[in-house]
Amino acid sequence: MKVLLISEQQDLIASVRTQCQQRIESVTQLPVNWRAVGESVDLGHLLRQQQPDFIVCAVMLPIAAEDDDLRHYESVIKLCAAFAKENKTPLVLLSTASVFAPGKLNYNETDSSDSGLAQAKFYLRQEEYLQKHVRQHIILRTSWVYSADENNFLAAVVRSASANTLISFNSAGKGCPTSVHDVARVLIAILLQLDCGAQAWGLYHYASSDAAIGFQFVEAIVAQASQFDANIDARSLHFEHNDAEDSEFYFEPIVLNCQKLLNTFGIHQKPWRALLAEVVKDYFEEVNI
Predict the structure, then answer these.
(1) CA pair distance 182, 275, nearest whole angstrom
(2) Rounded distance, CA 102 to CA 104, Å?
(3) Cα gap 227→259, rounded to integer Å
(4) Structural domain count, the chain
């Protein structure tokens, strides 16, 4: 099975590679940095040359994404969609829970998507495009993805805790922190079943289990990070409630219902607390390289 993975998230690319190597199945990963498309990467030529069995568009743009980034990623998705349609190649799009406006718990795939965020409207537009133009598609919405990447929520918390500076975020909101390793696990599980002939195209939700308010997740990050950084002390954290969507610490206060994914693919949710320690360790290992 040959998978073309379009992303910028190095932790996701590395996690997919590691998990593929641990499996008996033969999985070849072809990583592509979406920002390089049109510059150093001729994506159309690459697709025709490699003829992947699956295409995965897994770029998670932030809420404050620039218009140029939205336009560029949209062009990448449409190029992949055109190839997928012509060659009957399944296409997987990683989308976001922020398509929903906060207001209730356990959003289903059939619930109305009414977020006013430009980023959310962008992903909803891509979802609708695939649903209209690519029959063999999987759309996987996920939530509050955390990783060891320097631009991630987790890294921002660790830096502020180490410097003993204010952490200002929508602390009372409830969401589902989801490890990038967990996202990789789910993507691989879906691809393997599709490769075995499963005809389960459509829209699905996945996030780690055990929804938490912002304070709980931050405190859990700090507790793990204090094992690696002597400057971090959970007792001296400075918090401030802030609903601003451009905050460095903003997260989607949305809880997804993942029952459809379980019923269709048999993929169970994993608790975010059980996966947090590995990502924190990854972060400090990368910092110390």
Answers:
(1) 8
(2) 6
(3) 36
(4) 1
Q: Rounded to whole angstroms, what are the CA distances from 103 to 81, 96, 252, 260? A: 33, 16, 11, 21
Matching residue, tokens 């379009």: 6
- Of 130, 150, 101, 104, the closest CA to residue 204 belongs to 130
CA distance 73 to 79: 10
CATH number reported for the structural domain that contains residue 101 in this entry: 3.40.50.720
pLDDT tens, position by position, 27-79 = 888 999 999 999 999 999 999 999 999 999 999 998 888 999 999 999 999 99
DSSP 106: S
Q: Helix/strand/coil (H, E, C) string of 186-222?
A: HHHHHHHHHHCCCCCCEEEECCCECCEEHHHHHHHHH
Token pair of 200 as six digits: 């389960």
Does the predicted TM-score (pTM) go above 0.85? yes
Token digits of residue 281:
């360790």
DSSP string across 19-44: HHHTSSS--EEEEEEGGGBTTTB-HH
Nearest in space to 73 (alpha carbons), one of 34, 118, 125, 38: 34
